[in-house]
């Protein structure tokens, strides 16, 4: 691909060069961001890593690369076509996801493992993928991961599912699960599209816009698909937005699929869904009696206890809701700003901590619904019980960092990390709603102020490295739990807050 001789002209905003990534960071971490309509931006990537990504795009994305350029210390790759634009054609959108699959696979084969996908900007930018360099026998649960294939389940439009790059033997099994779980039925498909590289199903109803019964069914269907994939040894690897407000799910599949064995048949999973502005729903799949019967009462006791203890406005009511167990909280915990947003994140922090104590860990968070008032869903699986402190690094407004439930050593280390790695500097610090807050200069969580958002990603790379390498904390998940949305008559609505990050202390323990 050709490389532009100079950076394209920009209008408005302030642009400044990113600080050079320390060698220890560049050898262990980097990130890439997808941006509408056609951009992939890399921060702290080495030349070797850049070549891997170029070769992955050349392999899987037929339209190719239009040009590349150094964007004030980050590296931007501009693709031909508009694969990440809302309203792009089906073939363009699927081509973009095929490029994502190829990038993940090529990087994994060279020891770069995706740690998390996070939405760190209020508009324009899509998912940012953070990668960590793995060490054989330590960071990989199974060395065969390096030779695994990757496939993608895309939630498309308001009523479609696309199975992209799926193993041929798995496709009919997943289609069967969809038919079993989606009570409204399949309107069309499965239909092979894009020269057989994907299979699409058009469902009756609108599962990604639904409320009431269909909303519960949509989440149960998604959980059933994840469980079916896990039964065959295909693990959920990453959930990320590459185009719309709904996510695409990437799975890591062994080269040779093995028939389910007893322990995989009994895989126990459940979903916590944050709905509307004030509902918390617990659900399994329609077949999953082990969660619904044996563990549901214990789970509900724990969730209820956390709500009553850590949400100041309390609990309004509890009920069965189309097969889900629902808690209706007083106030609007999932549609907040100010001090209420701190309490919402503290509630989720301590709920994750308590569930870990009784043997449930987060597999992934997924943005499954186009309704702006619905937030992330959290997928849990059975895991050995572990008592470990959890904390939240909350990114608020356009320029705030809050450290919720974080011990003093974490706060003091993060102060130094910000000072060393955020070129714009610190505007002020204070205690806000009981927790330490840093007000950054510029607008690192907004795309409307020059390249401040790239400085924000550079900072979060350093945060991730310090939390994992220096302090011994493992990233649990990245999620949207409480952002209000700004309505724009002239453009797309956008959230007032971005994703927050949750960590658990794993000092002296191997990463799970």
Automatic annotation (TrEMBL):
Name the UniProt record assigns to this protein: Uncharacterized protein
Taxonomy, superkingdom: Eukaryota
Species whose genome carries this gene: Macrostomum lignano
């Amino acid at each position: 691909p050709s490389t532009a001789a100079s950076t394209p002209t920009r209008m408005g905003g302030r642009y400044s060069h990113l600080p050079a990534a320390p060698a220890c960071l560049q050898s262990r971490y980097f990130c890439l961001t997808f941006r509408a309509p056609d951009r992939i931006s890399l921060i702290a990537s080495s030349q070797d890593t850049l070549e891997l990504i170029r070769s992955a795009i050349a392999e899987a994305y037929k339209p190719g690369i239009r040009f590349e350029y150094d964007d004030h210390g980050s590296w931007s790759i501009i693709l031909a076509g508009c694969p990440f634009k809302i309203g792009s054609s089906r073939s363009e959108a699927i081509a973009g996801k095929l490029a994502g699959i190829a990038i993940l696979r090529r990087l994994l084969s060279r020891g770069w493992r995706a740690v998390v996908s996070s939405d760190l900007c209020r508009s324009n930018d899509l998912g940012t993928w953070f990668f960590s360099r793995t060490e054989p026998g330590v960071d990989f649960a199974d060395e065969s991961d390096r030779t695994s294939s990757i496939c993608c389940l895309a939630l498309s439009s308001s009523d479609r599912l696309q199975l992209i790059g799926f193993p041929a033997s798995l496709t009919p099994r997943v289609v069967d699960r969809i038919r079993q779980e989606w009570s409204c039925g399949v309107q069309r498909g499965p239909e092979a599209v894009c020269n057989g590289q994907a299979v699409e199903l058009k469902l009756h109803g609108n599962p990604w816009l639904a409320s009431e019964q269909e909303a519960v069914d949509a989440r149960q269907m998604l959980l059933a698909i994840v469980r079916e994939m896990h039964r065959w040894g295909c693990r959920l690897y990453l959930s990320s937005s590459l185009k719309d407000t709904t996510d695409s799910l990437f799975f890591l599949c062994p080269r040779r699929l093995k028939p389910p064995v007893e322990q995989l048949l009994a895989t126990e999973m459940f979903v916590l869904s944050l709905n509307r502005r004030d509902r918390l729903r617990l659900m399994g799949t329609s077949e999953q009696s082990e969660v619904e019967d044996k563990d549901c009462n214990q789970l509900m006791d724990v969730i209820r206890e956390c709500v009553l203890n850590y949400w100041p406005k309390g609990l309004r009511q509890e009920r069965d809701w189309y097969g889900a167990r629902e808690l209706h909280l007083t106030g609007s915990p999932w549609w907040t700003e100010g001090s209420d947003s701190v309490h919402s994140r503290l509630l989720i922090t301590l709920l994750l901590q308590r569930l870990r104590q009784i043997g449930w860990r987060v597999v992934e968070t997924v943005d499954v619904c186009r309704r702006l008032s619905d937030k992330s869903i959290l997928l849990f699986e059975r895991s050995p019980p572990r008592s470990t402190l959890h904390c939240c690094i909350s990114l608020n407004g356009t320029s705030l960092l809050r450290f919720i439930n974080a011990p003093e050593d974490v706060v003091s280390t993060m102060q130094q990390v910000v000072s060393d790695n955020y070129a714009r500097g610190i505007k002020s610090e204070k205690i806000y709603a009981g927790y330490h807050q840093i007000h950054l200069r510029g607008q690192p969580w907004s795309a409307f102020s020059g390249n401040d958002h790239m400085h924000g990603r550079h900072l979060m790379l350093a945060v991730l490295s310090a939390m994992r390498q220096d302090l011994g904390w493992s990233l649990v998940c990245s999620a949207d739990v409480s952002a209000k949305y700004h309505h724009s008559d002239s453009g797309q609505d956008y959230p007032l807050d971005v994703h927050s990050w949750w960590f658990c202390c794993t000092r002296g323990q191997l990463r799970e």
